[in-house]
Design brief:
This protein has ten helices and 15 strands. By secondary structure, it is an alpha/beta fold. The protein has a domain of about 210 residues: Ribokinase (UDP-N-acetylmuramoyl-L-alanine:D-glutamate ligase). The strands form three sheets. Strands 6-4-1-10-11-12-13-14-15 form a nine-stranded mixed beta sheet, with helices on both faces. It has a four-stranded mixed beta sheet with strand order 3-2-8-9. The chain has a two-stranded parallel sheet with strand order 5-7. The radius of gyration is 19 Å and the shape is globular. The two termini are about 35 Å apart. The chain binds adenosine-5'-triphosphate and alpha-D-ribofuranose (RIB). Adenosine-5'-triphosphate (ATP) binds next to helix 8 and helix 9. It is an enzyme of class 2 (transferase).
Length: about 300
């Protein structure tokens, strides 16, 4: 069983449920407000630990009230938080989320996440060992991500980058990434396009995979996930579920993917687990609320099989 280390952001998500976005200069009345602990790093760490992986989260919070709430919340999960640092005179990252029926819009103000620096990365990543897994994203300073990936690769650690939100540094990072997990929009940005036509995407992914040593798996929302297995492009559809909130679906996918690989699953099995787990997670409001335990994913998969027999 590999240890999973997740380096990344932790935010207080302030979620406003509303029927539409205000126009510039306009005030509208929203329907509901909720506060959830989020941030791509923390979300992925929670997903991995709920799956049952031995998971360490590396990140920074502020000395404000939200910092205390975040710590209290994450302490309820089976997570190693020993390296989480509380920064003086700095606020905890905030994600302002407008939740609409069709999708959500998010603005992140990084706060303490922006203070993850080379010294922090040097100290924390040097503790990783060969065979461990490092999972990270792009919501903290990108130069420190690069440094973390380089250090981890030197140590024989399996590296996974979820390139979200997309940043132009990604091509430069490829030599240090074993597995890259963009969503469709991020994959389009990676190949320099605004969007990819539905009937072309599988071929484009197959062509990309032929050129690069980094393994790619593209998450595609309600359409599921596409990757290349034994030179064949494979799409595993997502499950039809009753969707409440897709915030953090990608994070659930990434956390479970890392955890399942760490447990020794082969790539195909790990992607199936992650795809099923992510489908389960979208049925509750809040990024982490619906993240499943491994036993819940297994039960869900069994129900899918039973419904066909
Ligand atoms: P987010 O930024 O909202 O966290 P993302 O854009 O990174 O998500 P997606 O590709 O939208 O990631 O979704 C990740 C995975 O979540 C999908 O591959 C799928 O398994 C699951 N998923 C997402 N949306 C749905 C949906 N509407 N129904 C079922 N499963 C879904
Ligand atoms: O991926 C979802 C996350 O993105 C939210 O929890 C929010 O904090 C933003 O970082």
């Amino acid at each position: 069983m590999s240890k999973i280390t997740i380096l990344g952001s932790v935010n207080m998500d302030i979620v406003i449920t509303t029927t539409r976005m205000p126009r510039i200069g306009e005030t509208i009345i929203g329907e509901q407000i909720d506060y959830f602990v989020g941030g791509k790093g923390a979300n992925q760490a929670v997903a991995a630990s709920r799956y049952g992986a031995s998971t360490k989260f590396l990140g920074k919070i502020g000395e404000d009230t939200f910092g205390g709430k975040v710590l209290q919340h994450l302490s309820r999960e089976a997570l190693d938080l020993s390296a989480v640092s509380r920064e003086k005179n700095m606020f905890t990252g905030i994600a302002s989320i407008f939740k609409l029926a069709e999708d959500n819009c998010i603005t992140v103000v990084p706060g303490a996440n922006g203070l993850i620096d080379e010294a922090y990365v040097q100290q924390t990543i040097s503790e990783l060992s060969q065979g461990d897994i490092l999972l990270t994203q792009l919501e903290i300073p990108v130069e420190t991500i690069k440094q973390a990936l380089i250090l981890a690769k030197k140590k024989g650690v399996l590296t996974i980058l979820n390139p979200a939100p997309y940043n132009e540094i990604v091509p430069e990072l490829l030599p240090y990434i074993d597995i890259l997990t963009p969503n469709e929009t991020e994959f389009a940005a990676l190949i320099g396009k605004e969007a990819i036509l539905e009937d072309e995407i599988e071929q484009v992914i197959a062509d990309w995979q032929k050129k690069y040593a980094t393994r790619i798996v593209v998450t595609r929302g309600s359409k599921g996930v596409t990757f290349v297995e034994k030179s064949q492009v494979v799409t595993i559809p997502s499950n039809k579920v009753s969707v409440v909130d897709t915030t953090g679906a990608g994070d659930t996918f990434n956390g479970i993917l890392a955890a399942a690989l760490g447990e020794g699953a082969d790539f195909y099995e790990a992607v199936c687990m992650a795809n099923n787990g992510a489908s389960l997670s979208v049925q509750k409001l809040g990024a982490q609320t619906g993240m499943p335990l491994k036993s819940e994913i297994e039960e869900f998969m069994k129900q899918q099989v039973d419904s066909f027999t």
